[in-house]
Design brief:
12-stranded antiparallel β-sheet; 343 residues; mainly beta; disordered N terminus
Length: 343
């Protein structure tokens, strides 16, 4: 694995937003959805044999003006580095074409105190939601979590409902945390299906571009990988009509409540697609068993990527950059954080 890169890392904004809700018990196909500007993608039926998903475009979200300035230079992961200012919006409409693949979940631990791990996977095409191919290559495409005035408890979740359609108890929405692509091994221990799903950023990196008005980015997201290209995550320009080169998996852990009737049944969250000009891999808390560490190390080597870690240098990567990601609250007043965080 390489040492932390000194190259400036920059995020290039897609002018559209994607919203995702996750849930479901067994691996089950998701209903097709479109992306056009700000979207709500809701998955309902969490904890049942037949989860379902739907999409809804939202009006009233403004894009940054053509002359909007990027955020000023800010410290990068390495104290000597700086963030790049030169960021590029995709051609209009800036949305991404997705093809749903599956939803899966499992539970770990009892109630209360345990979690239901949920994941949703989509094929990704380098095209707008109307299937118009982009003529530029996507680089390390990442779906960055965002908050808005409508999200719950300062998180990226805009809706968290119980089976009866009522809202979950206070404190549940901001307890839904992003994870690696979690799975159980043969000994019922926590592991990952594959590495390189969750991505983390510093607060400065997450603020290095001008987002659409009304949303504010969190320093975490989910990466688009290219199964046909082991040496990078690029999605080639001008793909064919049915050419979906990428895969993205959104993965979360949802807290189990004291009674099953109080568990989240419907979840909706907000995400924003961005390009990233650096290749980093992130060690999540689910990437700490020997098999996962080996897989993540191999992935990082294949990508010539530096390692950041939510568990620190003792997680199998002595030279990893420890990282803390905010998952609720503002930069000035974070309410929930995950990783190696200051007291």
């Amino acid at each position: 694995m390489s040492a932390p890169s000194m190259r400036p890392r920059r995020l290039a904004l897609f002018s559209g937003l994607l919203v995702l809700g996750c849930g479901g018990e067994p691996t089950t196909p998701i209903q097709p959805s479109a992306t056009a500007g700000v979207m709500e993608i809701t998955i309902t039926g969490i904890g049942t044999p037949r989860p379902a998903a739907s999409a809804r475009a939202l009006a009233g979200w403004g894009l940054p003006s053509a002359g909007a300035a990027s955020a000023p230079n800010a410290p990068q992961r390495s104290p000597q580095g700086t963030m790049a200012q030169a960021l590029t919006l995709l051609p209009s409409p800036g949305t991404v074409e997705l093809d749903p693949v599956s939803v899966a979940s499992f539970t770990l631990g009892g109630r209360p105190g345990g979690f239901r791990y949920v994941s949703a996977t989509f094929r990704v095409r380098n095209a707008a939601a109307d299937s118009t191919a982009y003529l530029t290559t996507r680089t390390n495409l990442t779906f960055l979590a965002v908050r808005s005035a409508s999200t719950l408890e300062g998180s990226a979740m805009v809706q968290v409902l119980k089976f009866d359609g009522t809202a979950v108890a206070a404190g549940v929405a901001d307890s839904i945390l992003p994870t690696g692509w979690a799975n159980l091994n043969g000994n019922a221990g926590l592991t990952t299906r594959a590495p390189d799903v969750l991505q983390g950023f510093t607060e400065a990196e997450a603020a290095s571009f001008t987002p659409p008005s009304g949303v504010s980015p969190f320093p975490y997201g989910f990466l688009v990988r290219n199964p046909n290209s082991t040496g990078d995550r690029s999605l080639g320009a001008n793909p064919g009509p049915a050419q979906f080169d990428g895969l993205v998996t959104f993965s979360f852990k949802v807290p189990l409540q004291g009674a099953a009737a109080d568990d989240p049944f419907t979840i909706t969250g907000l995400f924003l697609a961005v390009d990233d000009d650096q290749a980093w891999v992130l060690q999540s808390r689910e990437d700490t068993d020997a098999v996962s560490v080996s897989a993540l190390s191999a992935r990082g080597t294949a990508l010539s990527a530096s390692v950041a870690s939510l568990v620190g240098t003792g997680g199998g990567f002595p030279s990893a950059t420890p990282l803390c990601i905010r998952t609720a609250g503002t930069v000035a007043s974070p309410t929930v954080r995950e990783g190696v965080c200051p007291p």
